[in-house]
Description:
Chain A is mostly helical.
Amino acid sequence: MFxxxxxxxxxxxxxxSVMSEGLAVLIECVLVGLGIITLxxxxxxxxxxxxxxxxxxxxxxxxxxxxxxxxxxQVICDVLKMMTKEVVNFRQTDRxxxxxxxxxxxxxxxxxxxxxxxxxxxxxxxxxxGVFFFLAVSSIGVVGILLAGWSxxxxxxxxxxxxxxxxxxxxxxxxxxxMLTMICLTGTMxxxxxxDQQATLGWNIFRGHIPALLAFVIYLIAGNAECNRGPFxxxxxxxxxxxxxxxxxxxxxxxxYYLAEYMNLFxxxxxxxxxxxxxxxxLVIPGLDGFNAAMAVVxxxxxxxxxxxxxxxxxxxxxWTFPRLRIDQLLKLEWKYMLPMSMTVLVIxxxxxxxxxxx
Amino acid sequence: MSNQIIPVVVAAADLxxxxxxxxxxxxxxxxxxxxxxxxxxxxxxxxxxxKTSDGTMTHVKSVCADRENPYIDSVTDLWDVANIYEREVFxxxxxxxxxxxxxxRVFLRExxxxxxxxxxxxxxxxxxxxxxxxxxxxxxxxxxxxxxGTLHEERTPIFTDDxxxxxxxxxHPSTHGVLHFRTALDGExxxxxxxxxxxxxxxxxxxxxxxxxxxxxxxxxxMDYLGAMQTRHALCMCIEQAMGVEVSDxxxxxxxxxxxxxRIDSHLLFFSCLAQDLGATTAFLYGFRDREEILxxxxxxxxxxLIINYNMIGGVAHDLHPDFVKDVHAFIDHMRSKKVGxxxxxxxxxxxxxxxxxxxxxxxxxxxxxxxxxxTGGTGRASGWHNDLRKLRPYAAxxxxxxxxxxxxxxxxxxxxxxxxxxxxxxxSIIEQLIDNIPEGSIQEKMKPIIxxxxxxxxxxxxxxxxxxxxYLESKGDKSPYRLHYRSTGLPLVAVMDTAxxxxxxxxxxxxxxxxxxxxxxxxx
Lengths: 359, 525
């Protein structure tokens, strides 16, 4: 398996040979930052295209097919349109908070995006409490949504933001519990170590068998809710609240929400593939060395992306099949069913681990 | 068969008592309330009451001679739907209903001068283009008469200062047209809804008074655009019966088939839009895919898809397209197929647990409520009210087909949904019974070049896509109607929203609005 660390350490050495350590790190930081932003934008565009095409096929339609071959240039046109649109300011909004809110949302999503392990050695933010950091940073997004609802001085926005607040904070509990379950299995909170383990011992979803599988299902549901995606798209609920918390946004300010929503979905799928499906780790069956070697030929980033898009397809399938829940049903689902269930799963996992019932 | 009606004239002072007696005798459904300006005789109202048990009707007329300050007792305490009907009459004729809790204008702007359907209305009293924003009053006005015979005006606020009022509409994805609900909320719970109508009011009834009879037909398709066939059928039938013209069997059967196709079209759109409103976008497109087939059938025969212009006085405009029978058979097979059509809707939407929990027990209307509010059609039948005119007062070819009147007892949103889904099946069965033996015959009776309806008052009704669609026609023997009033199927459905939604959540407002199935151009006319 190709270790991306070779590239990063070569770059570091090449830079330190001609300049001081501090300057080298600064240049590396800028490069990494540019890398994140580029990848972020590229994946957002892929996601938008994917969603439009996939949902079209679910619905007996063709989807975009006019701009470029199979409508491939449609997203680029959309982005250009979005960027050239006027940002409308309303008189009685809280101007500062109104414009700060989309940045908070997009920042939170970019920082969590940086937590994803793309390949062996290719991880931007990685330290011993990575999972904890991820959970903490991802919660910043809700602040942006609440601010958006409050600052817009619009009743639809406010209701949407309050729904979003209630929803995201509730479902974060389930996500936290699921993460704890898996940490219980792996014994580490570092994303890179979690992946390394799975490269040798097999994917967590197989290692943790029943509790891990249950945790995966809970994660998919809670993750979808966390991303405000249907059937949990209550904060936006276009047929009730027109557009929910981003009703009053236009131009690129709205574009940021759009971007963040898609990327949160990607991140949600990315984390699912990291903690359950091995991240960049190839399919490993302990004992079958020939098979493992063959699997390891495929680069880690391909494994990772393949898993991410697999999970994404599950989420899209869910999104385009179900009608929307109602806010009381949504909260009931979380507090009465999902939370007790995820706690039970945590206990089962702890028992399995302590009695050595995992693989 | 004549459809002439001769209303019983009752003095304004005895009116309330008389109507209350009639209600006690079983005439418990106020089908229509029509304001009329009889010129010298005065302004007045015609009440059309129906027995829900067997569908027989009686009509009561009351006149107030004082044109300057006309008033009549309100019957809002007898029938809830009178609330909105009386506001409509006040809006157009300026008749004040004593004891009505909320005597505001309903369709026109509150700063409108004069009452436009009065025969002496001066059209120059309002400027052509309003440059000011429309004022919306927060005060409900109640008129009562004091001991000395003078009118007393009492104003009460509609919303209190503490109410959190959200405007659902006029531009809103789920109001199915340009409709405005001022919705008071407590958290997410609805405490009151004040519907504000008239955004697309075109004054069709006023316009019709200046048109010849064939010209009035052109406006019918533009009222309930999902019931274009039926609305036009109602008006044609009313004029034909008034003139004593009997249309051929072929026309009757064609009209029946077209009405049923239109009903399926409407119900498919109902399904699609309800799914869309509840966030099930995929189901929405399934419904639209199949609806397209009906529109194609319409297009082949009539040339129109939404505005169809098919029925004419004395017949229909064109003969059926040679492919008509084949296409209709193909459509019936498609809808009943084991893979697509209705089966698919039930798979993706009806059986879905989220939809069921969102619809069951939501917006329950009792049978008493739907009758009092005059909610005919699927909304009434979902609450157990047998109000299907095709059974009660058969017209066209409905007396020769077998079909079931679908009713449910629950009265909730799910029942309202299921009524429509089952009615699609019944409509398919009606069409199937007729399609293979459409009688030969003329498609158009010979009519005089200028159509004049003999003097009198006439009333005909058909079962529209969403309820009883009545046409009240008063003629003085001219080539234009003296008064043409439509029983809107949607107006009672909008009026019932406040009752149906109180205590529910915002999301339920969408479910209830979707399932009672009003169409705004038909509400506003």
